[in-house]
Specification:
Layout: E1 12-14, E2 17-19, E3 23-25, H1 34-43, E4 53-54, H2 55-59, H3 63-69, E5 78-82, H4 86-98, E6 103-108, H5 113-116, H6 128-141, E7 146-151, H7 161-170, E8 175-179, H8 197-200, E9 207-210, H9 216-226, E10 230-233, H10 243-248, H11 256-274, H12 276-294, H13 300-307, H14 312-326
Parallel strand pairs: 3-10, 4-5, 5-6, 6-7, 7-8, 8-9, 9-10
Antiparallel strand pairs: 1-2
Helix pairs in contact: 1-11, 4-6, 6-7, 11-12, 11-14, 12-14
Length: about 325
Amino acid sequence: MHLPPSALSSSLRIGKVEIRNRVALAPMSGVTDLPFRMLAWRFGAGFVVTEMVASRELVCNAAESWARLKNSGIDPHIVQLAGREAQWMAEAARIVEANGADIVDINMGCPAKKVTGGYSGSALMRDPEHALSLIEATVKAVDVPVTVKMRLGWDENSINAPLIARRAAEAGVQAITIHGRTRMQFYNGKADWDAIRAVRDVVSVPLIANGDVETIADAREILRRSGADAVMVGRSAQGRPWHPALLAGVAAHPDAAGVAEIFAEHYSMMLDFYGAEVGLRAARKHVGWYLDRFAPALSVEEKAAILTSNDAKLVRERVASAIACCGAETGREGMAA
């Protein structure tokens, strides 16, 4: 499969749901909260996915799980569920469908120890039969499309994504996302885009390729080498929520003043969403990413002063000033074609 460059801006169907273009924002726990998703969606990302929602905790009414489920005008509303027991996954899927989810995504890719230690996320790939029981229960529980995001396998000696993907599709899963690394690689080394093609060879449902997509050229190349239908970007969007849309060719890179304006809005949205006290802390990682990308010459001391400040007005002013000093070209690496 070789999609022309223009294909990145074309639509795609996942079951009965139409996706407006082929570059998506990956679900990232602690990153893709509602403010981030709203911005990425507004700029033109093909679709965005919630942070992973713990299935049992959602069923048991945990406040954090319900906060992660929130939506605000994003269409389609895609909710990612994590869990290790079929009954909780099925019940959580019914809950999210009843609360407006258009697609339910199953997390089988998270490499974090606190997730895999609970036999969720990519740990499910160590036991394909058990993983399939969760998938089957989730598919049967809802009428909306169910998708799965996974890695190539647990380690280099157990590359079983093709097997699990084929059986997942047979069970009714309507799209599959593959991150081109094993769990044991975490985010080290280079994602293996060629290895994703083995999944393409055994499934006909939409395939989404993920891992190390930084530029427009990367997006085109991962499609060519993997045979995938779409691309998902994660870390490359940190500090620039417009990035998926830029790679899809439906948005332009903002100039320095535009970046500062976007940052100020993003920062304010986080303070409103979490409340001032929690928002200040939650926003710090995002402040750091904006500064790393658009004010790399900022001294360690100046950066630390911004990150530790509890004065929201001062943070906005100092970030805007730091970005303005770097000019409009910094952070434009995604434009390379």
